[in-house]
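fyi for ur records
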Amino acid sequence: MIVTRFAPSPTGYLHVGNLRTALMNWLIARQSGGRFILRLDDTDPERSRDEFADAIREDLDWLGLDRDTEFRQSDRLAEYRNASRALEAAGRLYECFETPEELELKRRTQLAAGRPPVYDRAALALDQAALAQLRTERQGYWRFLLDRRRIEWDDGILGALSVDAESLSDPVLIRGDGQVLYTLASVVDDLGTGVSDVVRGSDHVTNTATQIQIFEALGGKPPRFAHHSLLTGPGGEALSKRLGGFSLRDLRSAGIEPMALVSLMARLGAGDPVELRATLGEVVAGFELTKFGASPTRFDPAELEILSARSLHQAKFTAVAETLAALGVPRDVAPLFWDAVRANVARRDEIAGWWAVCQGEFAQAVENADAEFVAEALAMLPPRPWDAATWADWTGRVKIASGRKGKSLFMPLRQALTGRSSGPDMAALMPLLRGPPASG
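which gave:
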């Protein structure tokens, strides 16, 4: 069975880059009838907050990305301790004592000598007396002893990859304060929950190389890895510094439709044109991981806004029924109202403006030059109730009486009845107009 996971740290709000990872893993699981896990990587107690964990769940729920199970890493600290003991017993975990300043000095010295800045494993040469002395002076931290060979795997997106472990520093797995870091905790969790496939950003390729060896050192089989490209801005600029403006929370507040966002992210970078989908089932059916490439992928907010407006225009009444009910649109009127205005709203918060128009709550917009014409035209309006034929019948009579036609006829009348110069088909809107003006 395919088992995937999304593992955000609850130290901030999800952004579009996070969504890309979450969505790909969710789609792979749902395509195969497998399982999708939400894992909250909260081993950093100073930065992890419950409010961010709640926000992560809210964002996933908004997009319809359901989970089969969920857990926190902070509940599995005993498992990480057991794994670290096993690695130490196998000679693959060793204690180090260099300060950040000492490590930086080593790095500069290596670079100046034309050597790669790789940790020199000086701690392995310490005898028991030296170790005991250092433990009285400072906190030690723990590194994983890499087997310095070439690490190879078949990446689900990037193809055959290999990393020479000679070029890598032994990764730190446990900090001096005892905090277990992502590199170890993630491997232990993936093994413990049977994760079979991991899709994540290409900035994790080096992590993958080291983690493959940790999987093997713990007696487990590494999952299948796939590394998607990173997002850039519309001009190709790095997006990382701008992600705060593209949090899912902000996009939701800005009125972006969830199916537009999911449809875009499921195709962005795949080479195929983006297709707006009506349901998550359609997104699942049309997803192909192998079509994604290694090139940086441009995310254009303007494209998302256009897609979101299209999504709203195509939305069935059932998709907006709760929104209309919250505005006070009567149940018997709501379907007709939505059919009339749907093509004229780009965001849900614009719906309220059209309902206000129907209630007669708008500012007068008739030009002074048209005031006398409008007053005479309004006097010719038939009494309510109006129906789908009222607009054509009324404007036909006004045309004959005034001699006006085209824009000079229709625009002032639309302005008089709606306060706007453009909008829905007036034949569909007039039966919904319940407020003034009813006469000149």
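The mean pLDDT is 94. thats all i got for now
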